[in-house]
Amino acid sequence: MKKKAVVLYSGGLDSTTCMALALEQGFDPFAISFSYGQRHQHELAVARANARTVGAVEHLVVDFDLRLMGGSALTAEIDVPKNGVGNEIPVTYVPARNTIFLSFALGWTEVLGACDIFIGVNALDYSGYPDCRPEFIAAYQTMANLATKAGVEGTGTLVIHTPLISLTKAQIIQTGVRLGVDYGLTHSCYDPAPDGRSCGRCDSCRLRLKGFAEAGLVDPLVYQ
Question: Is the distance from CB of 200 to CB of 78 less than 8 angstroms?
Fold first, then answer.
């Protein structure tokens, strides 16, 4: 039997590529997505529609509301920046988001009797979020192995896989193409139109378009 792995899956380019890599490594991927009050609900709709198509054995959507705290252009009435990626942590950073996501993933991993989590964080072509760095992932993995029944009893060691963390966006796309990923089934925009078309100007769109251009490929998505 294949080993089970929980894959954090947003419906975006990176998480879909991460799912394909989990499959290539011989895992049965159990996709977990989050309805956390994000303003860009289209990405979640894409995740719901395509999780099994892109390889998930099961798809769990966890519902909670970070709008109660706000503090981000993705969860509060703050304009999404459209002027390019800067050097500071942008207002699209959602406080503690990956810490919370990984905690839910960790719980499901324990219930499934699994020891592996895949997350598509990236520390090269990204918006500068602090919870996408290798230091954060390493610290979380250490904590998780102190916090779980399997870790305490010595019956299993949790591993957080970050196969995209040192890749450029172009390299991520090239990897996905090699694995047969259909990037037409993904969505990345922080501020899409009501019909789901990507804005082409937010940080996420800019990084995505830059990646396709550097990979010598055409993004299959339709932009505003």
Answer: no
Name the nearest CA neighbour of 196 among 92, 47, 90, 60.
47
Summarize the confidence of residues 210-215 as an average pLDDT. 97
Long-range contacts (CB closer than 8 Å, 24 or more residues apart) made by 112-115:
112/4, 112/6, 112/30, 113/4, 114/3, 114/4, 114/5, 114/6, 114/30, 115/3, 115/150, 115/156, 115/157, 115/158, 115/159
Strand-pairing partners, residue 30, are 6, 58
* E-strand stretches of the chain: 3-8, 27-35, 58-63, 116-118, 159-161
Copy the structure tokens of residue 22. 């989990």
Q: Is 61 helix (H, G, I), strand (E, B) or coil?
A: strand
**What does the pLDDT look like over 175-195, one tens digit per residue?**
999 999 999 999 999 999 999
pLDDT at 127: 67
Degrees to nearest 5, angle at CA 96 with 91 and 101:
120
Whether 141 contacts 98, CB under 8 Å: no
Supply 58's token pair: 């099961």
What average pLDDT is seen over the chain? Answer: 94
Query: Is the CATH number 3.40.50.620 carried by domain 3-214?
Result: yes
CB 183 within 8 A of CB 25: no
Residue 160: closest CA among 144, 179, 173: 144
Write down the domain spans for the chain.
3-214
Q: Tokens 């810490």, residue?
A: 99
Stated pTM of the model: 0.94
